[in-house]
Amino acid sequence: ELADVQEGAAAVVRRVPDSDRELLRYLDELGLVPGERVEVVSRQPFDGPVFVRARGAEHAISRDLAARIGVE
To answer: Is 51:40 a contact under the CB 8 Å cutoff?
Structure first.
């Protein structure tokens, strides 16, 4: 899961939640799609957001969403 990737480490997205069309569109805009390399920049404490870098841009996503994105 993306939520388990250590700060400063990179992973490749393998699986995203696909039950919500709008969520899929949002993840595509962020570059969080299967096959894309993503880096975890930082994770905020107390279930705060996870900051990720994909396609050269940094984004904050919820820890819950990060836990639903499969990586390797």
So the answer is: yes
Let me know: does 34 contact 15? Beta carbons within 8 Å.
Answer: yes
- Confidence (pTM): 0.92
pLDDT at residue 62, rounded to an integer: 96
List for the chain the helix, strand, coil content (%; round to 5).
25, 35, 40
Helix ranges (H only) for 1-72 are: 21-30, 63-67
Largest CA distance in the chain: 30
Averaged pLDDT in 10-residue chunks for the chain of 72 residues: 96 95 96 97 94 97 96 97
DSSP string across 15-69: E---S-HHHHHHHHHHT-STT-EEEEEEE-TTT--EEEEETTEEEEE-HHHHHTS
